[in-house]
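From the shared-data thread, chain only:
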Amino acid sequence: MTRCTVLFSCLLVEVMCLIVFSFENVALNKSAWQQDTVFNYAAKRGVDGRKSSLSRFGDECVTSEYNATSEWRVDLEHVLSIHHISILFATDDKDWNKDNELTKYFLGFSAYISNTTEREDGILCFRDTTYTRATIPNPINIPCPHYGRFVTYYNNRTHIPYPEGYSDTTASFLCEVEVYGCSDQGKFGENCSMPCPPKCLKNSCDITKGTCFECIVGYLGPTCEIKEKKPQYPLPFLCGAVGFLVIVVSITSYRCCIKGTRGNAQFSPEDEIIPQNLSTQVHSEDLFFKRKHL
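Structure, as tokens:
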């Protein structure tokens, strides 16, 4: 590898880092919650910005009880546009490798973004299905360009048998969770300097591309710039439909009128008509006249 190539690669990495870190850590010092807190190792430690010591039993990391499930979440206070999530696991200030006993508690974890405290109401950003005690990174960066209010870390040991290397129980040994995005709603791009397209539903768009997640009613396209056309029907079709409607209305009106006339007519007993066979009636009259002339 030439010196120029190395310099270019380093420059590219620096530029990418600048782009990533142009987003703000919107989770810093926000309110947090966790399941089964141990003593005063509270959930808020996971967003206090302190990470000089990665010990479970220091004063900078979150610690929960060993259980079949573990859950921790941060409330961003508003629905914000998010770029990525960074999670720093506790190490007990030891080397991070397959021999570190804490690695087994993080295998199989998931990360979610949601608008409610129910994680499954939102989207799954990541679920570990491949890491081993030797390969799980620390910290781990999870791209998740979406929008939401709550970011949740979750793990479980509820489906036996577990993969090789997994612990029998789990716990939230987290030292810092950083959520990078835009603190201003409806913004995207580097430094969150550009507004989302005006037709994006709830003013929410992809934090890097500016494409809308959803459009307001009546608009289509990546940035909701296309006005949805109303369906056009040919003139013969419209004429036929109108004609059919007129016929149906006419028949209905006629039936209603006939029914109404029959219902309102008044008859006296003298007006009652007894139906007779016409041929029989005529024959009786002929017999009467014949007898009279005899």
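The longest strand covers residues 69-89.
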